[in-house]
Specification:
The complex is a heterodimer of chains A (about 160) and B (about 130). Chain A is mainly β and about 160 residues long. Chain A contains 2 helices and 8 strands, in the order ββββααββββ. Chain B contains 3 helices and 8 strands; from the N terminus they run αβββαβββαββ. In chain B, the strands form 2 sheets. In chain B, strands 1, 4, 5, 6, 7 and 8 form a 6-stranded mixed beta sheet that branches. In chain B, strand 5 and strand 6 form a beta hairpin. The chains are: A mainly beta (about 160), B alpha+beta (about 130).
Chain lengths: ~160, ~130
């Protein structure tokens, strides 16, 4: 029986950020939850190199290092983007933009099933990039993409 | 104040130079089988505002950003045989009254006409979109 993870409840797909790993655990006190996400993608991609040999009609491949990233699109939330004065979480304190400008390494988690006990999430550390907020009268609100360039491996964990 | 009230106020101001045309704050209800704007020609009547709310953006945390469209119709009936010389100015002043509503992402106005016997009825439609 397939066990599809639904996101329709509004509390399943959650991106949490913190300046330490414990602060980035889904549901942790003082974690910074990025609100108003329209979509989020976890890119877990092993690097590969292809090569061909004279005795084979198809190319071969071997793997190199993993290149992981998190990408998303969001409506811009003022507190999240510019900071909200949270003394216990520097990412929440200065906001996404300043953290990106300062190239500060952050810890993150992407919850797939919410923040309840035994719910799965993927975590790691990396750098915020790809912010490109845009506005127009047609879209009426500020919208921005964002990327977390993962430094190292992604880790699968349960809450 | 409602957008209808603001619109009536602006139309009143814009038409203040046209002595032959007045504006009523009454709704254009039907009396004796005819709407008031047909009975009281050369009087602008502004209908009740209609509001339509639709989802503009949906997010993974269940927060929706909605778009609200407020539609208001206004009516003016006048003599089709002997129109006012400045009827184009009157129409222009009625159309531009849309600008009184602020805080919107889009204001539009347009009109259409209908002629029955010797009466021409201008029906104006104003749309105000907020997010």
């Amino acid at each position: 029986m397939a066990d599809v993870i639904k996101v329709t409840s509004g509390s399943q797909a959650v991106l949490s950020l913190g300046n330490t790993a414990p602060l980035a655990v889904p549901g942790a006190a003082n974690t910074m939850v990025v609100p108003l996400m329209q979509d989020i993608t976890v890119n877990a991609t092993p690097g590969t190199v292809r090569y061909s040999t004279l005795d084979n009609t198809a190319s071969s491949a071997f793997t190199t290092t993993n290149e992981n990233s998190i990408s998303l699109n969001m409506l811009v939330d003022e507190t999240t983007f510019f900071g909200g004065g949270d003394a216990l979480n520097s990412v929440a304190n200065v906001g996404l933009l300043s953290t990106s400008i300062a190239k500060t390494e952050i810890f993150f988690s992407v919850a797939f099933e919410g923040t309840d006990s035994t719910d799965y999430y993927v975590s790691g550390k990396g750098f915020i990039g790809g912010l490109a907020p845009s506005a127009s009268m047609d879209q009426a609100v500020w919208i921005s993409p964002m990327e977390i360039i993962v430094n190292g491996e992604l880790t699968k964990t349960q809450v | 104040m409602s957008k209808r009230t603001d619109l009536i106020g602006k139309i009143t101001t814009n038409l203040s130079g046209h002595a032959n045309i007045s504006i009523s704050s009454e709704l254009p209800f039907v009396q004796g089988g005819s709407p008031l704007y047909s009975t009281n020609m050369n009087t602008v009547y502004v209908d009740e505002q209609q509001i339509d709310v639709e989802e503009l953006y949906d997010t993974l945390d269940g927060i929706s950003v909605n778009q609200t469209t407020t539609t208001i119709n206004a009516y003016l009936a006048t003599d089709a045989k002997e129109q006012f010389n400045d009827i184009e100015t009157v129409v222009a002043n009625l159309l531009v009254a849309r600008n009184v509503i602020t805080g919107t992402v889009e204001n539009t106005s347009n009109y259409e006409t209908d002629i029955a016997d010797d009466v021409i009825t201008y029906t104006f439609e104003y749309n105000f979109i907020t997010v």
